[in-house]
Specification:
Elements (H helix, E strand, L loop, with lengths): L2 H10 L9 H34 L2 H5 L3 H34 L5 H39 L4 H8 L2 H43 L1
Helix pairs in contact: 2-4, 2-7, 4-5, 5-7
Keywords: Membrane, Transmembrane, Transmembrane helix
Amino acid sequence: MNFDDLKNQWDNEKAPEKSIPGHILSIKEATTPIDNIRSKMKQEFFVQIVSLLLVAFSPRVFGFSPEMKQVFLIFYAVTCGFISYYFFKFYVFYKHSYDLSLDTRKNLLWFYYEMKLNIELYKALTYIIGFIFLSFISIYLFMNQGTVLHQLVSEISTFYIVLNCFIMILVIGVITELWAKFYYGANLEKIKVILDQLEDE
């Protein structure tokens, strides 16, 4: 048997090329929305840090009295405590998502549901900060009774003040829901579609 015959025989015995299973391709497609979510998480983390630092200058900007500065510091410390807890959970999830090989349905499911949980924590934090802000404004009005703002509020009935607080919380809630849906929702939906496809297979 000459060399050409051996080469032809070897070519004929080659295993046929295997196509990549559809579910593997779907998982690879999921990395793009996951990368987008990670990028948005990173951006939002830095925006919130900068915002928190800017709020620290509120007493100087608005010319708070020494008493109001102390009240502000208490509310600011409480706010920082809540935000620190959220940032910790946020950071742990962010770092852990890089430790996983997102090429299995199990890990993809983990990312999807953990991200949904983080979004719910984010919404809860927004409501808490909203209540803290309203509480601070109430104390500010109580402690600064000679201001024009206090005189204006004192002329309005209690019903309208409570109604305005309720409307403000409602507006904060709607903005929070829309922001979470706009900022993270589209990418989460893409992951959900891929998970549904994998489940069907």
